[in-house]
Design a protein that fits this description.
With 220 residues, this protein is α/β, with parallel strands linked by helices. It contains 5 helices and 6 strands, in the order βααββααβββα. The longest helix has 36 residues.
Length: 220
């Protein structure tokens, strides 16, 4: 079960980014010494072992900074730790998130993370075709949660199990209650109209280019 930390506005520092930066800084600090013949003989004797030592030192420094930076940021919040299962994919996650985060906001942040960071393609389909919502396991059944309240206020506690399910998506209806075309289909129509404009413009450019070429050869 994968562990995910969901905090609004928080981006976990990536260890490989820290390592690359640390190694680069150390390398730039040592490179001028060889350029000005300072410790050049020592560098030559170190050879491949010196290079490997630089990698090890960079990794140790990076690991310490990475752990400190992420843990110090997370300690600012009172966190809930609970389990989430995405029904459509069957995948489960252990979540750490502030207990007073709004349910709707949490759902958006979590699905964004799973879709774009974890690159779970099924979540994109789930969001496109349905309206995902969060439910909590309680007394042998799952109960829906009020998305206007915080996770703590709807009764989610440590070690609870929740699920994300897909409900009927209302925004894709062709006609709304007032008989108007929905925004979704207006958007689709605008896209199609834009393609028509681009095609006409492209045709016009080709036509003018053809005339220019014909005129060029006819004048010769």
């Amino acid at each position: 079960m994968k562990e995910i930390t969901i905090i609004e506005g928080y981006k976990q520092v990536k260890l490989h980014y820290v390592f690359a930066s640390t190694f680069g800084v150390l390398w730039l600090m040592l490179e001028p010494l060889g350029l000005f013949q300072i410790l050049s003989e020592e560098f030559k004797r170190a050879g491949i072992y010196g290079y490997l030592s630089l990698l090890v030192v960079s990794f140790v420094i990076s690991l310490g900074y990475w752990h400190y930076k992420n843990s110090s940021e997370i300690k600012k919040y009172e966190l809930l730790v609970f389990k989430i299962v995405i029904t459509e994919t069957g995948s489960s996650y252990q979540i750490k998130t502030p207990k007073f985060l709004n349910v709707k906001k949490f759902l958006i942040l979590f699905l964004d993370h799973v879709q774009f960071v974890e690159d779970v393609k099924e979540v994109k389909t789930l969001r496109r075709l349905t309206e995902p919502y969060l439910v909590k396991f309680n007394n042998d059944t799952y109960e829906s949660l009020d998305e206007s309240k915080s996770l703590w206020d709807v009764g989610i506690r440590d070690k609870n199990e929740c699920r994300i399910q897909g409900g009927i998506k209302q925004t894709n209806e062709i006609v709304d209650e007032e008989g108007n075309i929905s925004k979704f289909y207006q958007f689709v129509e605008r896209i199609n109209f834009a393609y028509i404009i681009y095609a006409a413009l492209f045709y016009s450019i080709l036509k003018n280019l053809q005339e220019v070429v014909e005129n060029f050869f006819s004048n010769k």
